[in-house]
């Protein structure tokens, strides 16, 4: 085991509290420093937790907290016009869970606090100084703190990533803004069914909301990225008007947008992905979660991969003899997996909204694809059946 006893975690989103819980289990005391003045309520929309992500949360006793607040998705359907094609699913694994980011933040923070993890708000990192035995974080308010290691769990716009490698690539803007709401309109779909729809001009998804109505998500093309503050400065009614221009000719897209309350529209802002990051760590600093691997949301794995990485980082710090060895083992166990899943999601993203001819041909092609290429055990099995053996030593483990 390393002689690491204390850690600074920058970022209080999902990866931050989970990393603190994992370190706590490994015997390392961590404090989470969050730039926002309070928990990030109202930030982001709904996200998916795959079976592997929930399994990783079980290590720190947080799995039931999440399944209790998540909506299970038992069936996924691809819709092209009037055609409905069932997407392949794995057998013998729990269902995908969709959960609002606010609710996930809340239960993870509460769990961390209950375990004695300190969380400090209003602490925006601006610099870090390393010595042979530790690292000191400097915050925008002039305060400092020191520990044995510093972990960047500060998202795609990570400050820690730039401190580790000033030449590191930044996030890539996907060209779209994300939106979400719950419509009064009720779709003709069984509860637990998520429908991915190729409309006439764009792509959207929806599922029946347990409390009534239909939750939907859609993207709008945007030439330049907009900060969340910029996107929210535009009146929600204006955004709905723009969404109606794209999806207003679709069924049920038109009804979903028409029966959505502007005041309930969730604006996620610009959507980004992370390209491969050359350097995951340097000295006593290391990255975890979206700061180092943020696949497209079409992967359905972003949050789950962040949770997995938190657990593996804690195992490596527990089992390897020193910091360089622990960080190297962590990267070795994680890089191929996260980059492989990101590559799969990127291939999915190449699908565009089909034109008039494509809308006729695509259903036939998709059915052939489902029979020939989409073998769920081959494509989804390695992702969703993945489980971390906490009790085993990370020192001898090979990458999945």
Descriptive labels:
seven-stranded mixed β-sheet; 400 residues; six-stranded mixed β-sheet; single chain; alpha/beta; D-Amino Acid Oxidase, Chain A, domain 2; FAD/NAD(P)-binding domain
Question: What's this entry about, in short?
Answer:
The chain is an alpha/beta fold.
Please characterize this protein's 3D structure.
- The chain has 400 residues and is of the alpha/beta class.
- The chain has two domains: 6-71 and 95-171 and 274-360 and 373-384, FAD/NAD(P)-binding domain; 173-271, D-Amino Acid Oxidase, Chain A, domain 2 (2-Layer Sandwich), CATH 3.30.9.30.
- The chain has 13 helices and 19 strands.
Write the layout of secondary structure elements.
Blueprint: E1 6-10, H1 15-25, E2 29-33, E3 46-49, H2 51-58, H3 63-69, E4 71-73, E5 75-80, E6 83-86, E7 96-100, H4 101-114, E8 119-120, E9 125-130, E10 135-139, E11 144-147, E12 149-152, H5 159-164, E13 172-183, E14 193-198, E15 203-208, E16 214-221, H6 228-233, H7 236-247, H8 253-258, E17 266-273, E18 281-282, E19 285-287, H9 302-319, H10 323-349, H11 356-372, H12 376-379, H13 381-384
Parallel strand pairs: 1-2, 1-12, 2-8, 5-14, 12-19
Antiparallel strand pairs: 3-7, 4-7, 5-6, 9-10, 10-11, 13-16, 13-17, 14-15, 15-16, 18-19
Helix pairs in contact: 1-4, 1-9, 2-3, 2-9, 9-10
């Amino acid at each position: 085991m390393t002689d690491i006893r204390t850690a600074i975690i920058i970022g209080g989103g999902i990866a931050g509290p989970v990393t603190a819980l994992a370190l706590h289990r490994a015997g390392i005391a961590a404090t989470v420093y969050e730039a926002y003045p309070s928990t990030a309520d109202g930030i982001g929309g709904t996200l998916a937790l795959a079976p592997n992500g929930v399994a990783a949360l079980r290590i720190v006793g947080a799995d039931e907290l999440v399944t209790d607040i998540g909506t299970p998705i038992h069936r996924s359907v691809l819709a092209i016009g009037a055609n409905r094609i069932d997407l392949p699913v794995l057998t013998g694994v729990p269902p995908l869970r969709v959960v609002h980011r606010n609710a996930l933040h809340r239960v993870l923070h509460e769990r961390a606090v209950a375990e004695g993890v300190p969380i400090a708000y209003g602490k925006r990192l601006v610099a870090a100084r390393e010595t042979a035995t530790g690292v000191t974080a400097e915050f925008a308010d002039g305060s400092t703190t020191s520990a044995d290691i510093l972990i960047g769990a500060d998202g795609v716009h990570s400050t820690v990533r730039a401190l580790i490698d000033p030449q590191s690539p930044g996030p890539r803007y996907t060209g779209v803004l994300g939106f979400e709401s719950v419509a009064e309109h009720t779709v003709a779909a069984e509860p637990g069914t998520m429908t991915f729809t190729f409309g006439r001009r764009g792509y959207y998804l929806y599922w029946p909301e347990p409390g009534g109505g239909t939750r939907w998500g859609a993207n709008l093309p945007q030439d330049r990225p907009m900060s969340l503050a910029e996107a929210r400065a535009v009146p929600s009614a204006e955004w709905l008007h723009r969404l109606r221009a794209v999806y207003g000719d679709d069924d049920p897209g038109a009804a979903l947008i028409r029966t959505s309350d502007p005041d309930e529209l969730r604006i996620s802002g610009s959507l980004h992905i992370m390209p491969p990051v050359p350097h995951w760590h340097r000295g006593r600093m290391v990255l975890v979660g979206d700061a180092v691997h943020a696949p497209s949301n079409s992967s359905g794995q972003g949050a789950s991969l962040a949770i997995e990485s938190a657990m593996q980082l804690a195992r490596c710090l527990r089992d390897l003899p020193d910091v360089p060895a622990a960080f190297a083992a962590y990267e070795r166990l994680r890089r191929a997996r996260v980059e492989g899943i990101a590559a799969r999601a990127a291939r999915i993203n190449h699908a565009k909204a089909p034109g008039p001819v494509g809308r006729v041909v695509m259903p036939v092609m998709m059915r052939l694809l489902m029979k020939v290429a989409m073998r769920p055990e081959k494509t989804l099995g390695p992702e969703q059946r993945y489980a971390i053996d906490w009790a085993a030593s990370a020192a001898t483990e090979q990458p999945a």
